[in-house]
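Lab manual, section 2.4: Encoding a predicted structure.

Procedure: take the sequence of the chain (204 residues), apply the prediction step described in section 2.3, and record the output as structure tokens. A sample record is shown.
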Amino acid sequence: MLAVEALGYDSWQTIYFQRATVILTEMLLVYSLDRYVKSSPQSARQQCYAAALSIMLSPALLIIDHIHFQYNGFLYGILVLSLSAARKESTLILGGLLFAALLCLKHIYLYLAPAYFVYLLRIYCLCPHSMLRIRFGNAIALAFGLLFLFGSMFGPFIYWGQLEQLLTRLFPFARGLCHAYWAPNIWSMYSFTDRLLLLGKGSF
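Recorded output:
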């Protein structure tokens, strides 16, 4: 199955394994959504409950995960767990480390990294009454936590001299960042049409 030339390989054992692991790992999404609802303010509890249900019962998420085996439910669970932890100052560093672990699992979440960086910098690393005063204890704890996490993830690749190959696979600029050319073209046309319809909506 792991041979490069065996692209047409499939077996029921593999399918059962993939389906079972997708279903089991999606339990993390259920747990994280439960934490998200319970950590929300009482005034917004009903809206958060509706949002959690819409995520859990999303047809797109179920189709992608249960047919294409993308494990997006598991990854989204880590993201929601990170957001829930970031709500409380006592678990802010846990929220940052969970997001860092999410980046190591799937780097597509890099687009959220600037928001996490600014939020943790302002709320956790800087004093609440002055942006010019640094809380060195918090900053050092966060820095060491991130260094340990990324070091444990990328350390083996550095040790075996495979970091360059890893980066070229994560960011394949040579072949283009899109897996297929038709997908971004359809998406851009859909987005452009949607913008036109929104602009024309005010005319009617």
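Check your result against the sample. The chain has ten helices and two strands.
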